[in-house]
Amino acid sequence: MAVPHKFFRAYSITAICFKMPPRASAHHLRLITAIIIMAVVVLIVIVGLAILFIWLVIKPKKLMYSIEEGSINFYNLTQGHLDSTFGLVVAAYNPNCRASVYYDSMEVMVSYGGLTVAFQVVQPFFQRHRNLTRLMVKPTARQVALPEKTARDMRLERTTGMVDVDVLVKGRIRLKVGVWKSWHYKLRVFALP
User: Where are the transmembrane segments (predicted)?
Assistant: First the structure.
């Protein structure tokens, strides 16, 4: 039995071709990598030159600190407990020509035999360039328990008229150059006998 012609339909299948982009050659990849590397190197050099220029203009110098005077007032050491006030004059010198210093926080600690016996928090202050600032601080010890050996050594030194103590100044500072202010830096100064 033959199927009538009208039941056959001719379907043509056409291939749909998508043209793929050409693959990047190894030469193009090397060229792009070289351009990226050169851009990073140029950026590093520009930042380095800017830092060098700023450093040469500012010519930063280290801040200098010293203890000009020291005394012990209201000294009382009984049963291994210390009550005393240490009178100190701390000199802070800023030798920089263009940089001023913000002392945002500062505390002065007095230690004897490796043990902190007194401290005082200093109010924040601003120090201009080429300036000597004298801070009169009175770290106070109130009922500080001392080990027996440390108390004996302190009594013995006190009879000679002098007591060797260590002074530690800790704080957070910022530098100011023109209108620019730096981030915070930690300040740690040790004054040993």
Answer: 31-58
